[in-house]
């Protein structure tokens, strides 16, 4: 086999491959003979089908299979010999003319680019810091109390207040016509919890059991019910029951009910602080990692392999369709999703992946076993049975690979922060937790 490689443009290459015709024909005959031993055809016993009949029936498909295998093998060997890092699958076409006794093919493909990363000492990276305050612990304890609240019916003449649970019947109409989802009986919600639109809650607050009221409600333009979004409806609501909420006290009994090892108020607050600090750490890592990656991409120079970008576009389209299906969208497979929508995101992902891979290679930032172990143990610490969670991660190579990727990203983040100009910024706990 002889091989020549031609540079077409940027990352695109063309390789010419030649295969001895006799080698192909020999392999075809070998596979047909093997097939003849097991093939079943009407009128013949298994293994007794004449070779000419087998060749007539299966010759073309076997020849096609051999060609694919041999050309693919020849391409892989030639690429390895030339030390080419091939991006994506090659486009292989048979040449119209070939040397006598040989078959010639052209393989057009892309190679991975050379990645040049500029001096990171001139990069500026914003590093966010935040801390868990006593106010954050108090707020979390209030949430825990609300999750364990009980309700008791108020007196008949008591007005519904914020935090009360009410049972209502309601019916809404738009231009005098009822609409889907606009009517319910014995419907319960907590006033002020945001389960209902604010106008609905405001109308219900102050009402007593047995009272009815009509009011107008304007659905937001981005309301999830598309049939009523941006429209105004007339509602009639009747309150049937008003119940007052009772929140448990923050005491040793609450700590015990939550399974806190040290069943005291101090133990409860310490446990809440530990969990919040863990959550804050992961959120800060994610935020600062994003800043680092933005700075890293800005300092890198490289061409993008079209094949890699297109493959990433296909993955994003597939993910979008899966999301549509999960949301119950009909005909999600036929929903038009133009590649252009996903192209910028795909280009960024490919660019970032190549840049990070180059930095990991050049600076030896691979994930060490002890780092992977420490990260898994930290993830498992928030669960009731950490040891089982650790075994769950180590029981699947795919899960381990996901953790390894996170650790590598963390290593890259720390490396860039050690080289770049870091701009520190404090962020409040509430602001950090409010961001996705």
Keywords:
436 residues; alpha+beta; Alpha-Beta Plaits; Chitinase A, domain 3; Trigger factor, domain 2; 3 domains; 5-stranded antiparallel beta sheet; 4-stranded antiparallel beta sheet; 12 helices; extended
Give me the secondary-structure topology.
Layout: E1 3-9, E2 12-20, H1 21-36, H2 51-81, E3 86-94, E4 102-111, E5 116-117, E6 124-129, H3 134-147, E7 150-153, E8 165-174, E9 177-190, H4 198-204, E10 212-218, E11 232-246, H5 252-257, H6 265-298, E12 300-301, H7 306-326, H8 339-363, H9 369-380, H10 386-394, H11 397-419, E13 421-426, H12 429-434
Parallel strand pairs: 6-13
Antiparallel strand pairs: 1-2, 2-4, 3-4, 5-12, 7-11, 8-9, 8-11, 10-11
Helix pairs in contact: 1-2, 3-6, 6-11, 7-8, 9-10, 9-11
Please tell me about this protein's structure.
With 436 residues, the protein is α+β, with helices and mostly antiparallel strands. The chain folds into three domains: 3-111, Trigger factor ribosome-binding domain (Alpha-Beta Plaits), CATH 3.30.70.1050; 150-246, Chitinase A, domain 3; 255-434, Trigger factor, domain 2 (Orthogonal Bundle), CATH 1.10.3120. Helices cover 47% and strands 23% of the residues. Strands 7, 8, 9, 10 and 11 form a five-stranded antiparallel beta sheet that branches. The mean pLDDT is 91.
């Amino acid at each position: 086999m002889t091989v020549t490689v031609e540079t077409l443009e940027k990352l695109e290459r063309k390789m010419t491959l030649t295969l001895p015709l006799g080698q192909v024909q020999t392999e075809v005959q070998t596979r047909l003979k093997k097939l003849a031993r097991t093939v079943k055809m009407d009128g013949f016993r298994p293994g007794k089908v004449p070779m000419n009949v087998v060749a007539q029936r299966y010759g073309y498909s076997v020849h096609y299979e051999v060609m694919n295998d041999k050309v693919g093998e020849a391409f892989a060997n030639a690429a390895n010999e030339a030390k080419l890092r091939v991006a994506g699958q090659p486009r292989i076409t048979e040449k119209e003319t070939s040397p006598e006794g040989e078959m010639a093919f052209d393989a057009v493909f892309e190679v991975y680019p050379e990645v040049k990363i500029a001096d990171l000492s001139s990069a500026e990276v914003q590093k966010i810091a935040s801390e868990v305050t006593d106010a954050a612990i108090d707020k979390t304890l209030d949430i825990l109390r609300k999750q364990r609240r009980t309700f008791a019916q108020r007196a008949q003449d008591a007005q519904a207040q914020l935090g009360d649970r009410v049972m209502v019947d309601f019916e809404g109409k738009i231009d005098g016509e009822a609409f889907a989802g606009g009517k319910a009986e014995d419907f319960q919600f907590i006033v002020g919890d945001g389960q209902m639109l604010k106008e609905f809650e405001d109308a219900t607050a102050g009402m007593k059991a047995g009272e009815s009221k009509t009011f107008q409600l304007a659905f937001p333009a981005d309301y999830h019910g598309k049939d009523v979004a941006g429209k105004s409806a007339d509602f009639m609501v009747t309150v049937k029951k008003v119940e007052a909420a009772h929140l448990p006290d923050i005491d040793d009994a609450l700590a015990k009910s939550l399974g806190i090892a040290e069943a005291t108020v101090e133990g409860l607050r310490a446990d809440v602080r530990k969990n919040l600090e863990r959550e804050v750490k992961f959120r800060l890592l994610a935020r600062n990692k994003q800043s680092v990656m933005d700075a890293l991409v800005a300092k890198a120079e490289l061409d993008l392999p079209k094949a890699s970008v297109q493959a990433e576009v296909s993955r994003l389209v597939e993910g979008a369709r899966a999301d549509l299906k999960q949301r119950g969208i009909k005909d999600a497979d036929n929903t038009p999703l133009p590649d252009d929508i996903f192209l910028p995101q795909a280009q960024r992902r490919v660019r970032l992946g190549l840049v990070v891979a180059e930095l990991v290679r050049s600076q030896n930032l691979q994930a060490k076993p002890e780092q992977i172990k420490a990260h898994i143990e930290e993830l498992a610490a928030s669960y009731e049975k950490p040891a089982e969670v650790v075994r769950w991660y180590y029981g699947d190579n795919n899960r381990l690979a996901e953790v390894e990727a996170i650790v590598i990203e963390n290593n890259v983040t720390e490396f860039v922060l050690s080289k770049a100009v870091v701009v520190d910024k404090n962020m409040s706990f509430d602001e950090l937790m409010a961001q996705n």
